[in-house]
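PT: before anyone asks, these are the final sequences, not the draft ones from last week. 592 residues across everything. Please model them as a single complex and drop the result in this thread when it's through.
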Amino acid sequence: MSLRPDLAPICEWIKPQSRILDLGCGDGTLLDYLSTHAGVRGYGLEIDPANVARCIARGINVIQADIDFGLPEFETNSFDHVVMTQALQALERPDEAIAEILRVGRTGIVTFPNFGHWRVRLGLIAGRMPVTPALPSRWFDTPNIHLCTVDDFEALCASRGWRILDRHLLSRAHREGVASRLAPNLMTEVAMYLLEAPAQR
Amino acid sequence: MNATEAATAVGSVGLVTPQRIAIEQPLPLDCGRTLPRHELMVETYGTLNAQRSNAILICHALSGDHHAAGFNSADDRKPGWWDNCIGPGKPLDTERFFVVALNNLGGCRGSTGPATIDPQTGKPYGPDFPLLTVRDWVRSQALLTDHFGIARWAAIVGGSLGGMQVMQWAIDFPDRLANAVVIASAPQLSAQNIAFNEIARQAILSDPEFHGGRFYDHGVVPSRGLKLARMLGHITYLSDAAMRAKFGNDLKAAPTFNFDVEFEVESYLRYQGQSFVDRFDANTYLLMTKALDYFDPARDFDDHLEAAFERTAARFLVIAFSSDWRFSPARSREIVKALVDAGRDVSYALIESQLGHDDFLMPIPHYHDVMRGYLHRIACAFEAAGDGVSA
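LR: through. Structure below.
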């Protein structure tokens, strides 16, 4: 089973046999892969009924709940990793969600589309809300209400004292090229962060 | 469609004959007494495979019984109470699973209960029949499991009070079930739930025809009390929106300014109450509501439900319905949280629904998809091991 390219870098960060919580787990692809290949145990949180049924049919533990509503029910430090892929920008309060992620998990893995990417900037210079391969929705039907750039995100982490243990800044082909190393905020389409709360070290 | 046509239709288990199974081992009860022997009415659907690994037990709710699917005779107007879920190609697929449904001890559909003749007196037990707990039922069902020679159920499934039996099974006999499916249930009753039960009991106990539970000896039934109890119950099984949609505040005719049936909802409740009196025993109703009230598996673990669940080994599927206020989704979430805290495998599905608590009996597509997907995986596991029905 080969893994979706946007999930592969996340798997490098996850320790075998660990306990994980996947927020917005979709049809359970990541948890299925990790349980088969890394002996990981855990749960997914998912709001879409069809995805919940798919997770259950493939034997993945899934809890039908909203991220905003469901996270507070989990005990502090009850997971090795809490993962949230491509959902940050759709949350009511992304900052509070990350704080919760770092309370519930020893580490948090967060990915989001970078609003500082040159395609986005080009769209805005042209005077229109950008529609890009990483952000395909139009302004009136987008679920994304809290978009941010790589620099914004790292500034938030610094202000809250969250440690960035590692990051992957990827181009559209999900590769870390020279360009995204030289000008990360301009060249990154998808940003991935491995975070830790300050008090836990 | 009459019963003969329905019984031959795709997806029906067809005609079924209930069996009376005598359990000759003594059954110690939580109240301190011991039943020397008891009998259980049982229906089974599908075929038990050679390895006896494809068996599913159905635990019924307050007014349920062993007749869960199919028809008992060609004249039956209605099939068993969960016929939409049990049958060939249905979520509980009888081509793959051997499904067992029983009437619990203390019931009134043929199993040993308050209306049974007490061999010591030659009269019905009545109020002398012991009050039971969910744990007692599970012990009785474990003896039934031995009767079938089943070491471990592939799954135990139940809604409402049935879901409580499923949880108790997982706690008390962790190695005797692989999967626990808990539907529209709760980890214990709320004060509001107990209050409803208490009013239902008072309605029965204060009926002059109740005769302290010995109404059999007087040749009467406390029909007014039992009817009231059922009418009250029915209100709690339906959502406000469902009742509004079904009855509105429609008058059947012009106002008559008296207390006859004038509104549609009154007519419905009186009909439901009356038809219940014709098929249910007042002492059984009292006993069932007490078993509900007593249920609290956390009580033995300093009120820590997760400590109770630490004893379990089954995988859990917990299902709740959005419009259910009798056992609301929040109660199912308590079960899920305790299972997560105990580190157990659990999935939770919240079904968008309209009707209320009764939705657990309805063929809602998302609900049945979830059940079908979960049970399909269980069947695949034993079929891959060569334990299919035809193997």
